[in-house]
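pasting for the record
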Amino acid sequence: MGKGLSAEQIIRRVREAAEPVIASFGLMLWGIELVAGGRTVVRVYADAPAGRADAGTEGNGEDGVLEGVSVDQCAEISRMVGLALEVDEVFSDAWVLEVSSPGLDRMFFEPAQLVPYVGSDIDVTLTDPHPDIPGRRKFKGPLKSVSDGQFVMEVPLMPASGEKPEPADVTIRWDRVKKARLIPVFPDTSKPGAGKNAKKASGKGGGKKA
């Protein structure tokens, strides 16, 4: 991976390189994902700032726009950030950089990102089983509220009677979360014209590898 650097240190170095570049395009850094393996993969997600006219639009890629971020922007950000990381010699082994929009099934990197999605369904995996629900690490359901480094979601739980699952509010601390994603809602393609923008947003920029 990096030259004696921890995953947290590498993410910080990537952030320092990526944030000003992404800002120069009028975009914001949504998050950074590091996938270690035979070749380290660095995934940088850029998004349109909240409140911008084209932020959150569901582009299907045919016109080069992906949720307010164009494919050309992703490619240019990838080139510029990749050069900066090469100059800084952040990685000692083979690596690849991918730049894209967060997509319809966006991953969340901090609790504040959850706030605009209250009412939407999310998919959450914890690092360890929930302290109040032994043996359970995975939860799916609507997000109900976010506050003070934790959030509440509604999930089906088996009652003591053991008959059938019933919806219940579960509070989850953010520091227990391993991964959290938005569950996308796709249009009903059975209706005429409904499938026009049904494609999942993608659009990875050109990669750089050492």
